[in-house]
Amino acid sequence: MKNKHVTDDREGPKKSRNKLFLKFLLTLGPGLVVMFADTDAGSIITAAQSGAVWGYKLLLLQVVLIPIVYMVQELAVRLGLVTGKGHGELIREHFGKGWAWVSVSTLVIACLGALVTEFAGIAGVGLLFGISPWISVGAIVTFLLIIAWTGSYRKIERVAILFGCFELAFAIVALMSHPDTGQIMNELAQIPWHQSGYIYLVVANVGAVIMPWMIFYHQSAVVDKGLDIEDMKASRRDTAFGAVITQLVMIAVLVAVAATIGKFHPGASLGTVQQVSSALTPFLGKTAGIMLFSLGMLGAAVVAVIVVSLATAWGVGEVSGYKRSLEHEPQEAPWFYLVYTGILILGAALVLSGINLVNLSIAVQVLNAMLLPIVLGFLYLLAARALPGRYRLKGTYSWVVGALVVVSSVFGVIAAIIPIYNW
Fold first, then answer.
1. Is 417 left (phi over 0), alpha (psi -120 to 50) or beta?
2. In the predicted structure, residue 412 carries a pLDDT above the cut 90
3. Which domains does the chain have, with CATH numbers?
4. Which of 118, 12, 70, 60 has its CA nearest to residue 350?
5. Which backbone phi and psi does 189 adopt, to 5 degrees?
6. Secondary-structure breakdown of the chain: helix, strand, coil percentages, each rounded to the nearest 5
7. 388: number of CA atoms within 13 Å, CB side?
8. Cβ–Cβ under 8 Å, residues 36 and 297
9. Which DSSP string do the residues of 133-195 spell out, in sequence order?
10. CA separation (Å) from 70 to 67, 251, 375?
11. Among residues 33, 61, 5, 67, which one has the least CA distance to residue 201?
12. If you ran DSSP here, which 8-state letter would residue 217 be given?
């Protein structure tokens, strides 16, 4: 009997841990997906530029950004789980329809700009293999439309996680670059704060870590998935896990480029997918330089397209009032599916139109950054006012988050304005 009681006592904590892990797996998704999307095509190129110009000197910053992106996205999770409403809907309720339309208008502009960047990345990957942008971009748009119109939230989420996992190919690329540990430690202690070029890339990395569409998507996703306040802890773990993963991807890209291009050809021009891949190939060979890099870039771009297009359809619906769920059939929520389809096709059309994507990307980046303070401002105000006392943002933590919101907004604006001088 004594041994039996000992076994039972040990099985209790084990069962409890198993339940917590099962809860985490069932909740896993919204945070991981939005963080995979955060490491989009534009962010990958920013990480590559950081490694090419400054070696490992921006490596520590990528670690520092983990708690920053977590704290902002956790607010979106908290608002969604406690209220059961999307971001646009809460703005409409607490600040009126006018401000709600202002907010969702910023979202549409930001999402359209993001789609241009992602589709350009997809087109770039296709060109590496001699595939026309019309085929590569068209195939992705067709695939995502079929999945959305015939699926459910969970189906879309599984597809997004699958493509997001492609980004882990960057970790293999980093290992194949054989980084020098001693050099990494040495450069971590060399922070050239006095050099404007270094400061600009610091600003660019910080400004790119928070996107307006991330907030709208994350809050709506936990609602559409059917999560509630009882899933708070598991959802926070999901968000924290995603925050770590997204920055590890950024670290992998930075390390791979710093160990190769940054070491032998520092300052090389890396503004497109083709330029980064071509620059890596002489050092890592075609397998890592083209195949693995392309796989990671494709995954980053596709998951971002999914998140951005859904954020648009959810956000517009939350303000206008139309039915907005992937659990509805197209005939039940026609406007939701039409907005989703429309933003996808418009983004693809801009990329395939032949216009100057460099100039367009700079213009969109400027607009996106200018609008970021509006989105983050509403997020902060809602977290401080729209939640019951127990979950409301308050005290010292409120001041810390507020400071991060201000810094992220300012850095985002600065990062967008500076390239105008080179336009």
1. alpha
2. no
3. 31-416 (1.20.1740.10)
4. 118
5. -90, -5
6. 85, 0, 15
7. 5
8. no
9. HHHHHHHHHHHHHHHHHH--HHHHHHHHHHHHHGGGHHHHHHHHT---HHHHHHHHT---TT-
10. 5, 17, 16
11. 61
12. H
Please name the residue that has the structure tokens 């080179």: 422
Element (H, E) at 1: none
d(CA 220, CA 227): 10
Question: 317: left (phi > 0), else alpha (psi -120 to 50), else beta?
Answer: alpha
**Amino acid, single-letter form, for residue 143:** F
Mean pLDDT of the region 277-300 = 85
Please state, in angstroms and rounded to a whole number, the distance separating the CA atoms of residues 346 and 362. Answer: 18
Tokens standing for 386? 């729209």
Pull the structure tokens for residue 338. 């039409």
C-alpha–C-alpha distance, residues 47 and 167, integer Å: 13
The answer on pLDDT for 45 being more than 90 is no
Report whether 93 contacts 283 (CB < 8 A). no
Task: Tell me which residue has tokens 């660019």.
Answer: 204
Q: How far apart are CA 161 and CA 71, in angstroms?
A: 22
Residue 367: DSSP 8-state: H
For tokens 């699926």, the residue is 151
| Helix or strand holding residue 374 (H, E) | helix 357-385
CA distance 249 to 40: 10
Answer yes or no: are the C-beta atoms of 348 and 116 closer than 8 Å. no
pTM of the model: 0.87
For 1-15, write each residue's pLDDT tens digit: 445 444 455 556 666
Look-up: residue for tokens 């195939």?
Answer: 139
H or E element, residue 101? helix 97-128
- DSSP summary character for residue 290: I
Distance CA(175)–CA(259), nearest Å, equals 10
What residue has token string 């190939």?
281
